[in-house]
């Protein structure tokens, strides 16, 4: 019988109230313990057993685990093959702020297969070695908070948006595709706090500020590529860290690498590209 892979753990330093972890265990992983944060995770391979609220739960690939702050739990492999998983630890105050001060959402079972929650956790549950832009992390927390509230059955509170503030934020992002955009900078430009602005932006433009900025950068990069600029040059000029960073986002947005897309465009005789397309809900990945 083949032996399970050796145990290993990789984790990140906490950044703005969020810490990420990725691990593999062949047997017993954790004794009973509890966090003062939300522990939100996904089993990537195998079966993860854990005792939670007086019952044994099974974390399987395709599900999301949501452990409420201060709830005791343990963790171990459910089969001899071991299990691999990723987890993100989020300070409860961030979830409450994203929900406008409402009570913290609670999922009794500790496990959910709800597609809203599965989709909302994708950005935070990436490999621990992949850095997350603070603007992206903020938007991802807001998405997770809303999904938690929906899955927990909390009634949504009607909130009015500030269209003018959202427009100021949009204009600032459009003018900032070639430089880093910080949350404080965006708040100052919009004249609106980050959590309210996140809500306003999605209400009026159908996406998060981070996603909007990424798509505008990709618009500009496509124009540069059609203009004959090298991929590496286009990446730096449009605010990406390097060409692999641009390629990763390009593939996620369009389903093709920049090289393949450019070949198709040239074969079709396209030599220019408008970059002022308005972003809407239909463009979301």
UniProtKB/TrEMBL annotation:
<keyword id="KW-0805">Transcription regulation</keyword>
<dbReference type="Pfam" id="PF02311">
    <property type="entry name" value="AraC_binding"/>
</dbReference>
<dbReference type="InterPro" id="IPR009057">
    <property type="entry name" value="Homeodomain-like_sf"/>
</dbReference>
<dbReference type="InterPro" id="IPR018060">
    <property type="entry name" value="HTH_AraC"/>
</dbReference>
<keyword id="KW-0804">Transcription</keyword>
<keyword id="KW-0238">DNA-binding</keyword>
<dbReference type="InterPro" id="IPR050204">
    <property type="entry name" value="AraC_XylS_family_regulators"/>
</dbReference>
<dbReference type="Pfam" id="PF12833">
    <property type="entry name" value="HTH_18"/>
</dbReference>
<feature type="domain" description="HTH araC/xylS-type">
    <location>
        <begin position="167"/>
        <end position="264"/>
    </location>
</feature>
<dbReference type="InterPro" id="IPR037923">
    <property type="entry name" value="HTH-like"/>
</dbReference>
<dbReference type="GO" id="GO:0003700">
    <property type="term" value="F:DNA-binding transcription factor activity"/>
</dbReference>
<dbReference type="InterPro" id="IPR003313">
    <property type="entry name" value="AraC-bd"/>
</dbReference>
<dbReference type="GO" id="GO:0043565">
    <property type="term" value="F:sequence-specific DNA binding"/>
</dbReference>
<protein>
    <submittedName>
        <fullName>Transcriptional regulator</fullName>
    </submittedName>
</protein>
């Amino acid at each position: 019988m083949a032996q399970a892979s050796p145990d290993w753990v990789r984790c990140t330093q906490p950044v703005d109230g969020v810490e990420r972890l990725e691990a593999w265990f062949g047997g017993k992983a954790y004794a009973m313990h509890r966090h003062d944060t939300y522990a939100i995770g996904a089993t990537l391979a195998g079966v993860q057993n854990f005792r939670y609220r007086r019952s044994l739960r099974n974390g399987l690939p395709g599900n999301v685990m949501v452990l409420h702050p201060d709830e005791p739990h343990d963790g171990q492999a459910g089969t001899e093959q071991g299990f691999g998983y990723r987890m993100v630890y989020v300070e409860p105050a961030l979830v409450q702020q994203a929900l406008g001060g409402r009570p913290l959402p609670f999922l009794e079972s500790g496990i959910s297969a709800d597609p809203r929650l599965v989709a909302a956790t994708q950005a935070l549950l990436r490999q621990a070695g992949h850095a997350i832009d603070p603007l992206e992390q903020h938007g991802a927390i807001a998405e997770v908070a809303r999904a938690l509230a929906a899955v927990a059955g909390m009634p949504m509170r009607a909130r009015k948006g500030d269209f003018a503030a959202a427009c100021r934020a949009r204009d600032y992002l459009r003018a900032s595709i070639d430089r880093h955009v910080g949350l404080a900078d965006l708040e100052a430009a919009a004249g609106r706090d980050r959590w309210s602005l996140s809500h306003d932006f999605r209400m009026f433009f159908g996406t998060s500020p981070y996603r909007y900025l990424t798509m505008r950068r990709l618009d500009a990069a496509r124009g540069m590529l059609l203009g004959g600029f090298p991929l590496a040059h286009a990446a730096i000029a449009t605010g990406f860290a390097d060409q692999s960073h641009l390629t990763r986002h390009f593939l996620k947005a369009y389903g093709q690498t920049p090289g393949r897309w450019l070949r198709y465009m040239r074969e079709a005789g396209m030599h220019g590209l408008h970059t002022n397309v308005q972003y809407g809900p239909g463009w979301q990945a």
